[in-house]
Amino acid sequence: YNGYSFLWAVHTTDSFDLSVNNKFKIQIYSPIQTELIFKLEGASNGAALEKRIRISPAKKWVEYTLDFSSVKTVSYKKLDLFFAPGTASSDTFYFGRIAAFPADACSGVAANAQIIDDFECQRNTAYDNGSDSLSVVANPFKTGINTSAFVGKYNKPAHQAYDALVADYAAPIDLSKNNYLTAQIYSPVAGTILGKLEGSTGPSKEIPFVITPANVNKWVQVSYDFSKEATVNHSRVVFFFDAGHDTSAPLTFYIDNIMFSPAPALEDFDPTRLTWGAGDVVNGTFSVVANPSPTGINTSPNVGQYVKGSAPLGVLSGSLPANFSVTSQAPQMNVQVLAPAGAKTVTMQLVSTLQGNKTADAPITSAGTWETLSFDFSSYTNITDFSQINFIFDKTLTASGAKFYFDNIRQSTSTLNPCKGTVADLTYVSDFECQQNDTAKLLTQDANSSLTIVPNPVKSPANSSDKVARYVKTPKSGQYDAIIIPTPTGAPYDLSVYNQLSVMIWSPAKGNPIGIKIEGGTQSLEKDTTSSSAGTWQEYVVDLSKVAGKGNKTVTLFGDLGLVPTSNDTFYIDNVRFKRAAISGCGLNFESAGGSYTFTTFANGSLDAKTNPPVANPSKTGVDTSATVSAFTRAKDGDPNFAGETVELGAPLNFKGSKTITMKVYMPKIGNVSIKLEHSLTGAPVHDGPSVANTKINTWEQLTFDLSSYPIDTGQYSKLTIFFDFFIPTKRDSTKDVTYYFDDIVVGAGSCTASGLFEVNVEKLSIYPNPAYNELTIDAAKGFDKVVIFNRIGQAVKTFSTSVLDTEIHLNVGDLQQGMYFLAAYKKDGSLAANAKFLKE
Q1: CA gap 503, 462 in Å, rounded
Q2: What's the half-sphere exposure (Cβ side, CA atoms, 13 Å) at 372?
Q3: What is the predicted pLDDT for the residue at 665?
Q4: Which DSSP string do the residues of 15-83 spell out, in sequence order?
Q5: In a designed cystine with 783, which of 25, 804, 827, 832 is the match (CB 3.0 to 4.6 A)?
Q6: Burial class (CB in 10 A: 0-12, 13-18, 19+), 683
Q7: What pLDDT, on the 0 to 100 scale, is given for residue 440?
């Protein structure tokens, strides 16, 4: 019963002569799938030699071969057999003839883990079901793709529709890189060769391969893409011959060269696999050509060639296979590129019909030689409708006629550091990946609980993160044990703009009490709720605007709030971050912190990918007297049709029933402005347009965009794109850069001007300081009964009761967001007595 109890045999002669007979065979009948240690010892120099083999299948006599041909000079006198080593087994094992043989053609051949069985030297598996029907024979058909000397012969019995050949690894198969299963099969009938992986705790996976009538009685390579099964831990490879057909007579199939390998290239031009656009003299041209430098990493005979056109941002597009997707097992795209001198980058885009272009860049480091460029698309594993791949070959190299060569486009596991170059985004408390802004202080109150960062156990469109935090609460944990995450710097959280705390939580049961709290300042805030589902990711949001400016420094999360579980409860936490509130009314005014966004240009030639922070108003007249506005400078070499700029808003647009957007514009010519809504949080489609013409030159005017055709009530769009002179190429000035200005973008109902307060001719209040920080003082007050502060769109945000006897009134404005406000003082009868404007810093 010892884990390493063994059978000890002594050779009948003085020693085992390994100089000649160095291949051993042993016949074994085992009641279980297990292992055997075959050990030689007793050499004069004390050396020992052992090999471990897998015993499979169970309950069948199988002959196993052990190759010691690499050892020829040491003599051994003892043979030890360890059955089921390392386990406390009480099973009975039977073994038959043990014989030693001279080396043969396969002696010393190292096992290739990619090959399952070539029926010659690489016999790296044991068969379970179907082993009685399989034998090794001389290849009866040395033609076509298979001229091997020996192959496997498989006899499928009559009336067995799903008789199977099963290769049992008895351990998880490593599919991290080699996940493309192939075999050569000679079939006597047309039908389906069904490939299957099974033997894990997860679901099995079947993929059919059809043998057409034209491929009967010839060697055919069958293939199965199991790249999406890399984390399922399958342990058995199964083939069903002529699957599903119940034949009245047995059938004989031949099989050979069963192996796992990396998935083939999406495109290698040998032959061409994707459909590529031919292009033109403006956007550049594409063709398949002979490899101009078949050296180094790429000796392929044919490659793709892209010749730059006159447009600096020419795009080469190719169609993707219908079953293409970015997976967590293969989130990286790789392509071999031979670039001309001076080239700096290559941009790759995957195009989604519903979610637009997803872009990644890679630097060119060895122009003039073949190099592999890698692109990280791990953020897009939740997108399932990629249909096109685009290449932009060096946005900085504008020389028409520059030639780029590319080849061997493949998906792969990630080799890039996904966090390289990541800039800390302090709106995140932690995403437990690249935005772990203080993981050193991530802890729980109770030592009986545990908190670790682990792979995401349930990837889904709701949360496709690779890593999350796992919190385990035990029966010994305190009922109010919690996860504590302090600020990275020790300074209070800035809740002036980002005041919605969002947390993704995976709960083990529906109805688990959950608590989300911010604390550590003068006024904390806690929201207690219950989990809305079990075993799925859910987002929970807490409005913290009431405690802005209260100095809070810690986020605290409770699982099983107030309870002690009877057994371990496991929660998963992710993407703890601060967000903006939904944007409504005067959403973007480019003055207050809450309405000031930075746009980024696109398709804009030499000014492409430039950020545009707010600028001074070029003309404080008419409908816009704001101090600052936003500007877009259209480059003279930008795209003639759709140059523009875009912004990620960080919060959804909330139209509150009015399906319009208004915008003030100041344009140098008569043209148009178009908008586009993207990044729907509910999966609503992207919409281009509408376009609205301006009517004034170098004068502020307000344009209204009718969005009644958009699903804006449910879309929750969080990205806004603005085009100037959209598809009016004649409006582009190709001789100089031209600047457009825009301001006061209003979402739905509302205005960026507080009306009424300054239309009445009343006295101006004497106030200081202006700008104000924490306190605003009204000097020489004259019998006011009430003072009200309004925001830019006329909403009352604070009200103060005063005494008619006050001669100086002190107002606490420290909790207001930055921006412009209006102050109104009222008499006891409710009439407006005086007003003023002030800026809150």
Answers
A1: 12
A2: 14
A3: 97
A4: SB-TTTEEEEEEEEE-SSSEEEEEEEE--TT---EEEEEEE-SSSSEEEEEEE-TT--S--B-EEEEEE
A5: 804
A6: exposed
A7: 47
**Is-contact 628 591, C-beta < 8 A?**
yes
The sign of the torsion formed by the CA atoms of 480, 484, 486, 492 equals: negative
Question: For the stretch 606-640, what's the b/e string if a residue is b when 16 or more beta carbons lie within 10 angstroms of its beta carbon?
Answer: ebbeeebebeebeeeeeebebeebbbbbbbebbbb
Spell out, as residue ranges, where the chain has pLDDT lower than 70. Answer: 1-4, 6, 8-14, 72, 328-329, 398, 421, 437-443, 593, 687, 689, 713, 754-761, 781-782, 792-794, 804-806, 829-831
Q: Is the Cβ–Cβ distance between 469 and 483 less than 8 Å?
A: yes
The residue count for the chain: 841
Distance CA 674, CA 689 (A): 5
Beta bridge partners of 425: none
Residue 582 has a pLDDT of 87
Q: How big, in percent rounded to 5, are the helix, strand and coil portions of the chain?
A: 5, 45, 50
Name the token pair of 379. 């953020």
Distance from C-alpha of 598 to C-alpha of 613, rounded to nearest angstrom = 5
pTM, rounded to two decimals: 0.51
| Strand arrangement, sheet containing 78-83 | 7-10, 78-83, 34-41, 49-55
Within 10 angstroms of residue 60's Cβ, the number of other Cβ atoms is 14
781's CB contacts (< 8 A; 6+ apart) are 802, 806, 807, 808, 809, 825
First to last CA, the chain: 79
- Token pair 């209204």: residue: 704
User: What local confidence, expressed as pLDDT, does residue 793 receive?
Assistant: 62
Give the whole-angstrom CA distance, residue 817 versus residue 840: 7
Give the residue among 353, 281, 814 at the shortest CA–CA distance from 547.
Answer: 814
pLDDT at 316 (0 to 100)? 93
Is 229 in a helix, a strand, or coil?
helix
- Please state whether beta strands 832-840 and 763-764 pair in parallel, antiparallel, or not at all (unpaired): parallel
CA distance 575 to 555: 13
- For β-strands 370-376 and 332-338, DSSP reports them as antiparallel
Residue 438 confidence (pLDDT) = 57
